[in-house]
Design a protein that fits this description.
By secondary structure, this protein is α/β, with parallel strands linked by helices. The chain has eleven helices and 14 strands. The chain folds into two domains: 223 residues, Rossmann fold, CATH 3.40.50; 69 residues, Alpha-Beta Plaits (2-Layer Sandwich). Helix content is 36%, strand content 30%. The strands form three sheets. It has a six-stranded mixed β-sheet, with helices on both faces. A four-stranded antiparallel β-sheet has the order 2-1-4-5. It has a four-stranded antiparallel β-sheet with strand order 12-13-11-14. The longest helix has 16 residues. It binds adenosine-5'-triphosphate and magnesium ion. The site of adenosine-5'-triphosphate has 13 residues, from strand 2 and helix 1.
Amino acid sequence: MSIIHAERISKVYNPRSSKNAVTALSELSLDVREGEIFGLLGPNGAGKTTFIKVLLEIVFPSSGTGSMLGEKIGSARARGRVGYLPENHRYPDFLTGAQVLRYFARLSGVGDGTLKERVHDRLKLVGMEEWHRVKIRKYSKGMMQRIGLAQALINDPQLVILDEPTDGVDPLGRKQIRDLLMHLRDEGKTIFLNSHLLSEVEMICDRVAILNKGRLIRIGTVEELTTQENQYRIGIEGTLPEALRLEWEATRVNVVEEDGGLLVALDDVPALNTALDQLRNHGVLITGIAQNRQSLEDMFIDVISREEEA
Ligand SMILES: Nc1ncnc2c1ncn2[C@@H]1O[C@H](COP(=O)(O)OP(=O)(O)OP(=O)(O)O)[C@@H](O)[C@H]1O
Ligand SMILES: [Mg+2]
């Protein structure tokens, strides 16, 4: 089931101004499935935050439709079941962390009976129990982020929407947040996040989409997006025989020798099999074959630079 369904959503800011009109989203369609961690990636200004704002009806779309948790986007009923961590959030800095959480708990309708326990539990979840009596103005950037995350979870939401959740958090804290998000997924919650930390996204997201200048340019599982179809890693014992190296050079087979094997670019599966036959004919022992994968970061840089060129 789709927890978020977006259909050709466009957003133009200042549409009536010829000078200041900005197309932040352009016919964006995507689906987020129940129980997954979904990452929306893209360069600065790609439209990621705008998309979240459209889902929550903080801004209205210029065109397009969609649903969230089975209700039309923007419906108050759906928003009541969403937790939201905004980008660059600010809370009144004369309040303590616990006061902020109590305030948001009441706003989102947490009952008196559960309020105290809920606030305590969320503080613990984000590792802020020791700081709950300290005023927000004394918090570091990472502490602000943790309190923001606790705030996003205060209403026990079914869908958690996080705009740059680990921004400013130290490495240990980021690991804690990753573990927390995976734990929430295991509980059956759906998580939608924006992030620039691609190594992190790679570790936890089930599926990702890449946005550039308001347009969707890729969507799929991390594995789908990072597998390089025509590149194979062939594990071999020993080194590539000189005769075969020369033969491949003459027939323009692109090969890089690396520790324990070869990285070979081949047009298709028949070409792969020819290469394997050639290796065997030269008495080479093959220890393994796999399609090559690049990191999410390398893939991202590749597709964005190709877009820029085009
Ligand atoms: N309120 C606004 N009025 C006018 N233009 C806006 C407004 N908010 C955003 N924009 C523009 O819309 C585009 C998309 O912005 P958005 O904040 O959605 O990007 P983003 O992908 O979240 O970027 P970042 O990674 O920097 O957070 C940008 O060109 C931005 O300048
Ligand atoms: Mg943003």
